[in-house]
Amino acid sequence: MNSRKFDVLVVGSGIAGLSFALTVANQGHRVAILTKKNSADSNTNYAQGGIACVTSEEDDFESHVHDTLEAGDGLCDEKVVREIVSEGPVRIRELVDFGLRFSQLDSGEYDLGREGGHSRRRILHVKDMTGKAIEEALLGQVARSPRIAMLEHTFGIDIITRNKLAGRPQGEDPENDAVVGLYALDVHANKVVVFEAPVILIATGGIGQVYLYTTNPDIATGDGVAMAYRAGVPVANMEFIQFHPTTLFSHDEKRFLISEAIRGEGAILRNMEGRAFMPEYHPQADLAPRDVVARAIDAEMKKTGAPYVWLDITHHDEAYLKERFPNINATCLKQGINIGEDRIPVVPAAHYNCGGIETSLNAETLLPGLYACGEAACTGLHGANRLASNSLLEALVLSHRGAEAVAAYLKGARRENGTLPEWIDYGGNNEDERVVISHNWDELRRAMWDYVGIVRSTRRLERARARIRNLAQEIHDYYWNFSVDSGLLELRNLIVVAELIVECAAQRTESRGLHYTIDHPEKRAFFEPSRVRRRPDQVG
Ligand code: FAD
Ligand code: SIN
Questions:
Q1: Which of 33, 42, 124 to mutate to test the pocket of ligand 1 (most atoms within 8 A of CB)?
Q2: Which member of 114, 147, 255, 290 is catalytic?
Q3: Is residue 153 located within the same domain as residue 37?
Q4: Ligand 1 atom with minimal separation from the 391 CA
Q5: Are 341 and 359 in the same domain?
Q6: Is 391 in the pocket of ligand 1 (CB under 6 A)?
Q7: Ligand nearest to the CA of 484
Q8: Residue 66 maps to which CATH number?
Q9: Which of 233, 252, 277, 458 is most buried, by CB atoms within 10 Å?
Q10: Does residue 221 share a domain with residue 73?
């Protein structure tokens, strides 16, 4: 029997998974962190701007709450916003206790950054490499914990539930079902392993790879959202995909982020004629919420036919820019752009999923034993548009609250005793057929970019839906006829994510926050989150 037993399985090693694992292990539980690549491969590692948190005398919770609600365009859950904002400072102090050193002024106070939609300076940062510093601090703590096993190159495939064991359809009556374990691919051994645990935390991060152009690294394939959906857990607000307005234009598909913190320090967006266009679109001009800025850039690019717009920070001298934004400065220099002298060519790219697995403020999902936090979860904080730098904050607060809820759940949880069924490998390898994976992956990402992007329409959504349906059928057949590998598993999950985005977008017959459709440009008076849940009889 290949079963491995733990109290808690954490799928993902970004800020959400690592902080949750640390708190749960401190309660005395045995934890395994499963991560599909190296432990530091995460969106967290790429975070630039920082963490939004009220730490200064000139700021207050009410103002942070107000800015979050404004950005969320009527869809935030105010109670959730208030809790997360007010719990921020305690969680930040823990990071500092772990050795994280946020950038400071000569006076010793935090050097607070500013980003779009924030009415005050409140972003704690480590120059422009905040995520890397967080990831290193958390991984350092995890390495010291005797109760945490870090299992790299271990790809979570699907949740095992009591329903599954009893031969009942996945997703039937989830409130009376429960988590019992997980199938995961040991990528190096090329073998599926069975893990046994009454609790799973999904902390698998974002979905950026469903789009052709994204700021997200390769790991962002929405695996956790797809897993939870297949287990019958509701997924919400998936139409609200945040496109970051400013990524470095390049001729390949990779998009390097040019942090909004640059605009926080006075950078100005200009069109091809050199005109600063943002004041025409919003009173906050270059620091308007992201949805507004991304749509404005899209409109300017369409008007002029240019493949990018300019971002101009040349009013600062090179020495300052090198010190404050070392990573952006160095990356631009490699492309022959000296940001102290040259304007930076920028374009929007898919950046963040405001929707995800529906959870309570304690990271609980509808399925007992299944928890979710970080970008994979939808708590109600972001509503229709996330306020910049609120996601790292949300991950910190929810992972802590989730860990506390797990402690209570484990006291009454029933455990299996080595009775979980082995994975059945239905197929073999067929190298000739492998081309289907890369071809379908490209087709999916292009269709999502062209038809479900910054500006949408009912007809484009229908086009996307038809293409995704064909791809889903092909990958379904492939999945049941060949052995699984990471590429196939990721594409299978991305197709589910694409279906969920299109389904939620189709449900929203209005334009709100990040969802803009030319067929319904107005906001509805009555509104609610979009929500999708797998039918128990659904195939795939
Ligand atoms: P991640 O950090 O993405 O971690 C997910 C983990 O899950 C990874 O370890 C991955 O390998 C693993 N994983 C995924 N699928 C599987 C699977 N099937 N099996 C096993 N493991 C799996 N937010 C801010 O608040 N401030 C910022 O300044 C900021 N800047 C950003 C800059 C960039 C370029 C990007 C891309 C994002 C930025 N964000 C920022 C967003 C923020 O970084 C993410 O939302 C946040 O880091 C997500 O954390 P997470 O722990 O949920 O997921
Ligand atoms: C950025 O630095 O612009 C990204 C911040 C975020 O996504 O919250």
A1: 42
A2: 290
A3: yes
A4: 25
A5: no
A6: yes
A7: 1
A8: 3.50.50.60
A9: 233
A10: yes
Using DSSP, state whether 4 is helix, strand or coil: strand
| Structural domain contains residue 193 | yes
Distance from the alpha carbon of residue 375 to the mean position of ligand 1, in angstroms:
7
Q: Do residues 224 and 275 share a domain? A: no
CB 225 within 8 A of CB 345: no
Q: What is the mean pLDDT of residues 444-448?
A: 98
**CATH number for position 269:** 3.90.700.10
The upper half-sphere exposure of residue 176, i.e. CA atoms within 13 Å in the direction of its Cβ, equals 5
Residues 518 and 455 in one domain: yes
Nearest protein Cα to ligand 1, atom 29: 47
Residue ending a domain, among 305, 322, 348, is: 348
Are 398 and 376 a contacting pair, CB within 8 Å?
no
Same domain, 302 and 435: no
Domain coverage including residue 179 = 3-239+354-412
pLDDT beyond 50 at 447:
yes
**Among 308, 330, 348, where does a domain finish?**
348
> Ligand 1 center to residue 153 CA distance, Å?
16
Distance 205 CA to ligand 1 centre (A): 4
Residue nearest to atom 33 of ligand 1 (CA): 47
Question: Which of 257, 328, 344 is the best mutation target for the ligand 2 pocket, counting ligand atoms within 8 Å of the beta carbon and taking the most?
Answer: 257
Q: How many domains does the chain have?
A: 3
Same domain (yes/no): 335, 359: no
Tell me, yes or no, whether 417 lies in a domain: no
Minimal CA–CA distance to 50: which of 97, 80, 9, 95?
95
Annotated active-site residue 524? The verdict is no
Closest-CA residue to 19 (of 93, 129, 126, 94): 94
Identify the nearest ligand to the CA of 349 by its number: 1
Residue 263 has a CB neighbour count (10 Å cut-off) of: 25
171-215, pLDDT tens digit by residue? Answer: 888 888 999 999 999 999 999 999 999 999 999 999 999 999 999
Q: Are 487 and 221 in contact (CB under 8 A)?
A: no
- Cβ contact 74:512 at 8 Å: yes
Residues 6+ apart with CB under 8 A from 56: 109, 110, 112, 120, 121, 122
Residues 29 and 144 in one domain: yes
Q: Is residue 52 part of a domain?
A: yes
From 43, 114, 244, the mutation candidate for ligand 2 (largest count of ligand atoms within 8 A of CB) is: 244
- Tens digit of pLDDT for each residue in 29-75? 999 999 999 999 999 999 999 999 999 999 999 999 999 999 999 99
Q: Can you tell me whether residue 187 is helix, strand or coil?
A: coil
Cα 11 to ligand 2 centre (Å): 24
Please tell me the pTM assigned to this model: 0.97
49 C-beta closer than 6 A to ligand 1: yes
Tell me if 195 CB under 6 Å of ligand 1.
Answer: no
